[in-house]
Amino acid sequence: MQIAGAIIAGGRGSRMGNPHKAAIRLHDGTSSAQRLAAALHEAGCSPVVIVANDATPYAGLRVIPDLRPGLGPLAGIEAAMLALAPAAVCLVAGDMPCLGSADLRQLISAWDGRLAVAWTDRMQPLCAVVAPDLASEVSAALDRGEGGVHRLWERLNAAQVRFASAAAFSDLDTPEDLATWR
Question: Global pTM?
Fold first, then answer.
C-alpha cells in the first residue's frame, strides 16, 4: 500500500511566538519542515505534504490547509488523510526536527496495516502511520467535539512501536528549545 507523508504544522505556535515554527531556520540553516520532508521522502513516503493554514513560509512544499482551522492537530490529521486518500499516511509533528528517516522507517515497517504510533516513555501521538479507512473515525471525533489525538489513538487500539530513546521526538515549542537545539 502506498504511504504518503504529512507534516502537521497548522498550530498557533503561541509558546514559540511564531505560528510558523516549522519554518523557523535552525542553526544549520534548514527548517524543521525541510528536515522532516526529506526524512519522509527518504523513508519512502510519497507524496509528502505539510498541513498549514499559510503556504507562504513553506515554499517548495505542497501545503494542505486545515479544513477546520483552530481545532488542533486532529483537524490537521483529518485534512491530510482526506487530501491524500486512498494512501495511508505517515504523519509527524512539524516541530520535531530530530526525527530522521531511520526512525520513520522503523515506524512504517512496524505498521500493522491499520494504526501504529511511536512510543518512548509515553505515546508520541503525532508520529503515527494511519490507514485511509480511519479518516472517518478522525472526522467523527472532530464532529463530536473531541480534539485529542492521544485519546483517539487509544480508543482505536493503536499498535505501539517502541523506540529506545526519546531524543528523536524532542520538539521545538519555545525560544529556549530553539536555543538549545543542535
Answer: 0.89
